Structure prediction request, 577 residues.
Amino acid sequence: MNKKTFLSAVVQHIRSKEAKESVKAELEHHIHESSDRLIKKGYSKNEAEHLAVQQMGNPSSLGIEFKKLYRPKIEWRLICLFLIVLGLGYLPLIILKDVDVGFSQDLSITSLKRSIYVLMGILIAIILCIFNYRKWQRYAWYFFGVGTLILIVANSGDLFESFIITINGRPFFDFIVFTVDTSIALPFFLIAWASIVNNLKVKFWKLCMFIFISTFLYMNTINISLFMMYLFMLLLMYLNSNRTHKIKIVMVSLCSGVLAFLTIKNMKFYNITDITDRIMGLLQPENDPNGAGYTYIQIKMLLSQTTWGFQPITDEIYFSIPWLYSELVLLFLTYTFGWGFAVLLLVILTLIIVNIAFIATQVADPFGKQLIIGAATIYAFQLFYNVGMSFGFLPLAGISLPFISYGNAPIFINAIMIGIVLSVYRRKDLVANMDKKSNPSLSR
Amino acid sequence: MDKKLKNLRQSMKQTVFKEMSFSEKKKSAVKREIKQENVFLSILQLLIEEKTGVELLERLKARNIMKFDESEGFLYTTLHQLVQKGYLTYRWDEHTLKFYKLNNKGRKCLKKLESNQKSKTAVLKEILGGHLS
Prediction:
């Protein structure tokens, strides 16, 4: 068998182009060295090549081994957790069916809506998983541009009246069939920053400028929870980068953020009374039991009545607490199914974070790692804040429980995160440490 | 009963098993299986300093490890597998040569193997997931 035939037989079943080239190059070099040695021993060029190839072993067996090694990797545990949680999200719907809640007629429509969102979420995750995430790295600034554009449009107020609606002061994009808030800008920023933060050519001051622009736009949309999520994501990605003095910078940013908040609060520059009211409501609900403190008192009461067993929720209770179906759905489920169920649900939701963290350790590519950290932060922030909120530890904010709260955003945004993580995992073993400068044939 | 079984054994030896012989090749293959453990220990030891696949093979032959005779390609499948499991790192240099080297996880594993003579097989099974080929 000659060298060419041997090599193509070995690599023919490898799916990834990058891996194919890499394996071919390595084996070719080996055969080269072997045949050189044989030529020195006195063999002819042809004989040497054939003998060297023979020494390599059976090409089909080798082909099978390499095929197995370079299969796209699928993290089934994460997929299972994802599907389980999507399924658990139907529970609130099922309980509500028994309660005569006035809009039980709409319940079938809500179920249908949720099923559509779930299917779309799964589809989004699959599509993202299949994409070659490495290709996104080059378009980082375009992603940043799209994210910024979304925020600018959201801030434009009357200009796009036809498809921007405001709910509670926050802008929403109305696409007739469904509405999304500015959280759809987050994935774009995630991808953009995952690349830019690691790109040492972008100087610190430039980075600050762009962070400031996007932060400012986010603040203007008065979606404080999204704004905080965005900042957290940035901070953690920065910590994971290899920029100088990163720990000091992060600490300084955190401190200055807190300071800024305290100063603005007294200036009444931005309308932060809403936020301060909520914080005061949490800390001293008795001061304003019918206003800012109301919900916190209701939460405490409901939690005190929660047992380890099942208890159906009554109309009275259901209507006494706002958001029981959306942001406070965890409270709803805890009361209805008991503490045991709550623990189980939280364990499953936390396992997703654990799994993503585990995946992060297996990924060598820095861009991939940043993507995973950003995605994990966005998901974890939602989970932890929502849990804190539902059990009365944190001031109320518009942060939903991933996958389970009512609406399309909890499903879509987190499906995107899962899709990105799966996409990075899929290619984790492919040519991570390549130095493209030394091997131009392998740069893509 | 015993006698009948002995007779069966005799007759089979003369008929079915007549053609079979425990050839030298097979003997050495079995010995190689027994020597499995030494191969991986050697690879890990040799890669404390970075080497290419060709160099590694040379050194393995010097240690009298014949496992990759006539199947040199499988050294590379083994190396790639160890990379994926996180015990080795690699780099390409300007001459398009690929150098392998033990990394932190690999070094820890080597320490474990070298100090833990008895349960070597257990540790190796752990590394390669039962895929000792």
Summary: Helices of chain B lie at 2-14, 24-34, 36-46, 53-62, 73-85, 104-115, 120-128.
